[in-house]
Structures are given as structure tokens and as C-alpha cells.
Amino acid sequence: MIxxxxxxxxxxxxxxxxxxxxxxxxxxxxxxIAKLLQNNILSxxxxxxxxxxxxxxxxxxxxxxxxxxxxxxxxxxxxHYGYTERIPSTWQIAVDKDISKPQxxxxxxxxxxxxxxxxxxxxxxxxxxxxxxKIRIYDKERTICDVLRYSNKLDREVFSNAIQKYLKDxxxxxxxxxxxxxxLRVTEKAKTYIxxxx
Length: 198
Known about the structure:
Mean pLDDT: 91
Order of helices and strands: HEHHEEHEHEEHEEHHHH
Number of helices: 10
Shape: elongated
């Protein structure tokens, strides 16, 4: 069987998370995986997904490994970009509306999935890197369009701060934002809330 040190190295190169198929690919069988769990070397995040006991893994990596098609969304994206100081109580993620829904019933990290129409899901996806793992997130312009879409549901302070901080961002791209706004049907809101600050 693979040594504990080698196992830890494999987990490290995988961002701290491995699935059953990945463990089997490095030579572990189901009985050996069960023994590693029993001996408190591995812990189960959810069925078929494991981490090394005592090694902290960022939530973003757990999300990327468990839900590889999900995209960091709305307030969670605002936090990433520094457009809010308020930490959401759950990770907000965008997923295709046709995806299987029971998979999101996990205890940690807590998630709130937003089920989007497939024609909108790919607009503005970008990535950032955490410990060598690519995390999917909407770019700044798409995130602001989503803030405009949910303007009536977001806290007023979160909403206002997001708009104002975006407009102070030297990397903002108003042209792209307006292109997204047209597709996502928030052009009038964009003109109202973005235009008033320009």
C-alpha cells in the first residue's frame, strides 16, 4: 500500500481533496480506503470525496472538487473581488437548472445554489487559482449584472457598496458590462445605477 507521506503528497498536488476514483488510480482499493478512514488518516467530506485529517483545505477548492461545473456567484463573487466586506452565510454558486439538485445537500461547506438557464450560465465565466486548483467564478462585469438582477433581494448596503466599489475599480470594463446587461436583460437598471455614478 502507498505510504502515508506519499498519500499526503498526492493530496497536496490535488489541492487537498481526492475522489474515490483518484485514490483507486494511485493503487488504493475500497478496503484500504475504509482502513485509512478508520485509522483517522482520511476523513470523508461527502460520499466519494476525501481529505487528509488535520490539513485545512480552502472552501473554494472543496467546492471546485465536489461541484466542478459550479461557478462562484453573487455575494460570494463580490467578496472575492473586494466589493463587499460582508461574508455570506453560505457559498452562493451558479449551476445549470437541469443539474441534479440533491447533491447540494451537504453540511460543509454550506452552499446556496442558484439554478440558471443554460443560455445564461456561460456568460462571463473566468477562473482564479488557489493552491494550483482552478476555481470558476463570474468576472466583475457579470457579477455586477447579477447584483442588478437581484437588486430587490440584496441588502441595500451590499448593493450600493458593490456598485460604488466596481465603479472605483481601475480594471472595470463598462462596455463589457453593458454587453452583458443587454443579454441578461438588465440594461435599464445598468443605465440607472451605473450611469448615475459615471
